[in-house]
Amino acid sequence: MVKRRTCVFISGQGTNLKNLISHSRDNSFPLKISLVISNNKNANGIIYAKINKIPYLIINTENHNYENIVSVNLKKYKINFICLAGYMKIISGRLLKNFKKKIINIHPSLLPKFKGLNTFKRVLKNKEVKTGCTVHYVNNKLDDGDIISKKFFYINSKDNEKTLKHKTQILEYKAYPEAIIKIFSNY
Question: In the annotation, is 107 catalytic?
Answer without folding.
Answer: yes
